[in-house]
Amino acid sequence: MTIPVDAADRRAVKPVICYPNETLPVPDLSGYKAARAGAEKISEVRVEPRDASCFHVDAGQFFRISSIEGPQVGDLNLWHAHDLGERFYSGKTRALHGTHITMGERMWSSFPYLRPMATIVEDTLDWYGIDEFGGSVHDVIGTRCDPYTGYLLQGTHYHNCCHSNLLRALSAETGLSLDEAEPLVHDVLNVFMCTGFTRDTGQYFMKASPVRPGDYLEFFAEIDLLGALSACPGGDCSTEHSSDVASCHPLLVEVFVPSEGALGDWQPPAINGYNRNHGVG
Known about the structure:
By secondary structure, the protein is α+β, with helices and mostly antiparallel strands. It has one domain (42-250). It has helices spanning 7-11, 29-37, 90-97, 147-154, 162-174, 178-181, and strands at 40-47, 52-57, 62-67, 74-80, 83-87, 106-108, 116-123, 136-139, 189-197, 204-207, 216-221, 225-231, 251-257. The strands form two sheets. Strands 2, 4, 5, 8, 9, 10 and 12 form a seven-stranded antiparallel sheet that branches. The protein has a six-stranded antiparallel sheet with strand order 1-13-3-11-7-6. A hairpin with a 2-residue loop joins strand 4 (74-80) and strand 5. The longest helix is centred in the middle third of the chain and has 13 residues, at 162-174.
């Protein structure tokens, strides 16, 4: 390998943000919080360790994911409740907001819709920030633990990883076969998971989540949602995932409906306005 004479100059070029987000529509957090203050709890779902469950949230409602018995991370999928082709797009969410998301930031949907699905309105781990290793919580960089990578790396057949958990939950909820449902399971929001990239090799890492019982992440549903949450078999992900050894705990999903008129003239966001011509015709 020959190192060019201007290598240092090339490395010193300053970065440019790919998607400046100053023109993104700004959520009305104060309005959402005012509506949440008078909201009534209407349902809850307990997600058992090393398993997943589905839940429904109507547009204009709130849902909260809580740690209830011990440190535990969760893998979250979201779909439009009436069109499963519109699903959470972790890559574009990452491009718009960053590798980890928190209060005031949004989960965006897939093409051709590309609109807000849910807005984070409360995050009790917002204090964590970015640690000395470059780690932070609630990432949109990890894909979900899955049996295919497990087989690739270890030659094992492990069935309680988050991909399989989400798949079983979606199949049971919708009546779709496993083969029909599997293409609909997608990259996740890693709720409570503490992750980053190593500075020397650029590898994705995880470390013990700072989450404790009583911590929660709360969202405002911008559209009608079907959600699925897996309580990861890695527990707090301090040692490994896809494991029957790690200490795992349940998670709780609660849904709240605001009082009549509390949201004023709020309306669900329209789908993306691009004309879908793609340069043809």
